[in-house]
Design a protein that fits this description.
Elements (H helix, E strand, L loop, with lengths): L2 H108 L1
Length: 111
């Protein structure tokens, strides 16, 4: 074997050893990163589940508030109609009472 071939062989061995060490470090780092990513995903999943529960609670509260608002609006409309009906009947009663007086005053003025 020539010196050049020996140098190449030694260089290949050293480079392959270094390459193997780099691969090992990368795999270890990759596994560590994967574990960290999995833990982060679990934490995020838990937070999302918590947000889902909160959103469900908020949706239920909104639906309840909408129902209460609709009920109150219905009551306002009914009260308004009742008040209007009551005012109209009172107006008719008063105008009915005033008309006989107007007719009497007209008759008195004619005589």
């Amino acid at each position: 074997m020539s010196i050049e071939e020996q140098i190449r062989t030694i260089a290949k061995e050293e480079l392959s050893t270094e390459l193997e060490e780099i691969e090992k470090r990368l795999k270890a780092a990759y596994k560590k990163d994967n574990i960290q990513i999995r833990e982060d995903l679990k934490v995020l999943t838990g937070k999302l589940e918590g947000f889902t529960v909160q959103m469900d609670d908020i949706v239920q509260r909104i639906e309840k508030l909408e129902e209460e608002m609709n009920n109150r609006w219905s009551l306002v409309v009914k009260l308004r109609k009742y008040t209007l009906d009551q005012l109209m009947s009172e107006y008719k009663r008063l105008t009915g009472q005033m008309r006989p007086e107007q007719e009497e005053s007209i008759e008195n003025a004619e005589t």
